Amino acid sequence: MGAAVVRYLRSLDMQVIAPSHRELNLMNGEATRDFFDNCRPQIVVACAARVGGIAANIANPVDFLVENLAIQNSTFLAAADAEVSQFVFMASSCIFPRNAPQPMSESQLMTGLLEPTNESYAIAKLAGIQLAKALKQEGRLSTNVLVPCNVYGPEDNFNLEKAHVTSALVRKFVDAVDERDKFVSVWGTGTARRELMHSHDLASAVAHVLNNEDVPFIANVGTGVDHSIKQLAELVAELSGFDGEIVFDDRFPDGMPQKVLDTSVLANSGWRAQVGLKTGVAELIKTYRSLITAQLNN
Length: 298
Hints:
Radius of gyration: 19 Å
Shape: globular
Number of domains: 1
CATH topology: Rossmann fold
Distance between the termini: 27 Å
Oligomer: single chain
Strand order of the largest sheet: 1-2-3-7
CATH architecture: 3-Layer(aba) Sandwich
Structural class: alpha/beta
């Protein structure tokens, strides 16, 4: 997400400062305050987070909670001290209750139990929203919270232990084609439904919010359309040229049964997603194949 936001805002001739993790560890509060004191940004878009798919969340709940809390606390407080004029915080659709009515509206937050497989991550993000509210209440920082659906794009992570669903499936099917495998195994029953948005659309939503004072404190960002994991797997298989068998392994969890956002708040302010899923997945396959080629050439 961060790379897409940087690319998009720079295309609008904005001066963007985007330190890498090696240059700035946002879990270090003192280092973060020093960085803000030195560069004095007017706008902060907080995309940094410890993220991953179901497997990573199940394996590392402590890290997902503690690291995200640390990143958020240091970034919010440094921004407040530096008198940043606009702050955009990236939450996640994981923060909605597991059994929330679909599509999920902003008013449904904190109305039920969370999905257990990503509970630590969700609680960290909810804590970030509360910190934003508290800072606004004290008059120290003005924040917009964006709640995106599942995001994929050119800078996606294809490590199967850390990847989200779209990039994980792209890697599995492209590798299967290259290795001439007869079948591909996919976690879960295939019935879980996910809303998938290209990172370019998320970046355009950030720019929209920065230029529209009427957008409320918290707003969902998505396409408003969901697909089953089975449908997504079949699309990736088709676009990658895989003609073998797709096997759904129900020994592994589906996660939340369905996640699709009510995107009417941003739509009413004039923003809508533009990149179609087929176009975006085809681009992601091309990206992964380019990475493979680069590795082979090295």
